[in-house]
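Hey, does this match?
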Amino acid sequence: MSDSHSDKNVQDEVSQLETKSVTAARLFDIRRIIGGLFVVYGVIVTIAGFVASDDEIDKAQGVNINLWTGLGMLVLGLFFLAWLKLRPTAPPPPSAEEGAGE
C-alpha cells in the first residue's frame, strides 16, 4: 500500500513540475522578449525623434530618421505582442503514461 501512495505522490509532483514548465515556457516566449524590447527602444528612439534639432535633421538629408525608425520599431514590437496575445504557446501534449493511468 505504501508503494501506491508513493506513486501517487510522484505523479502529483510530476504534474506540478509540468505545470510550472508550461508557465515558464509562456513567460520566456521569444515573442514576448522581442516585442518588449522593440517597444521600449521604439519609445526611446521616437522621443529622440520628437526632440531632434534642425541640425540633426539636416544631417539625414531632411528626414527625421529617429522619428520614423522609432515608429517602425513601435509597430514591430506591438505586432509581436499582439501575435503573442492572439496565438499563445500551446501546452505540450499529454504523455502516453497520463492517458494509460486514467
